[in-house]
Amino acid sequence: MSEPVKNTILGEALRQEIADIIRSVLREEIRTAIDAKGKGPRECLRAEELAAEYGLPRTWFEERGRAGEIARTKPGRYVLFKRRDVEAYLESHKKNNGGS
After folding, report:
1. Confidence band of 13 (pLDDT split at 50, 70, 90)
2. According to the model, what pLDDT value does residue 39 have?
3. 11 and 34, same structural domain?
4. Selection from 95, 60, 100, 97 nearest residue 81 by Cα
5. Structure-model confidence comparison of residues 12 and 64, the more confident one
6. Total number of domains in the chain
7. Statement to judge: residues 56 and 25 lie in one domain
8. pLDDT in tens, 86-99
9. Where are the alpha helices (DSSP H) in 37-82?
C-alpha cells in the first residue's frame, strides 16, 4: 500500500517543480518583453520627431505631408508619418537629385 502514496508524493513534487520552472520562464519572458518595449525604431512618428532624427526642419515634413508627397495620418491628436514612407521619399529624391 505504500507504493501509491509514494507515487502520489513524487507526482506532486514533480508537478510543483514543473510549475516553478514554468513560472520562472514566464517571469523572464515578461521581463524581456517589458524591457524591449520602447527600444528600437518606432514606425509612426510626428514631424518634430522626424526633424530631430533626419536633421530637417519640422515644417519640411509638414509641407510634404500636406502636399501629399509623403503619406500621413491623424489617428488621434497628432499627425503621424510612417517611417518607411519618409525613408522611401527621401531615398527616391536622393536618387533623383544625385543623378541630375
Report:
1. confident
2. 61
3. yes
4. 60
5. 64
6. 2
7. no
8. 999 999 988 767 65
9. 47-54, 58-66
Judge contact between 44 and 76, C-beta under 8 A.
no
Q: How far apart are the C-alpha atoms of 61 and 53, rounded to whole Å?
A: 12
DSSP, collapsed to helix, strand or coil, labels residue 81 as strand
- Tell me the three cell numbers of residue 76: 488621434
Q: Quickly tell me which residue has 543623378 as its cell.
A: 99
Statement to judge: residues 66 and 33 lie in one domain = no
pLDDT in tens, 56-95: 999 999 999 999 999 999 988 999 999 999 999 999 988 7
Amino acid code (one letter) for 74: K
Give the range of the structural domain holding residue 24, as residue numbers without chain letter: 1-40
Rama region for 72: left / alpha / beta (φ>0; ψ in -120 to 50; rest): beta
* Nine cell digits for residue 81: 508619418
Q: Give residue for cell 500621413.
A: 72
In whole angstroms, what is the distance from residue 23 CA to residue 73 CA? 41
Beta strands in the chain (DSSP E): 44-45, 72-73, 80-82
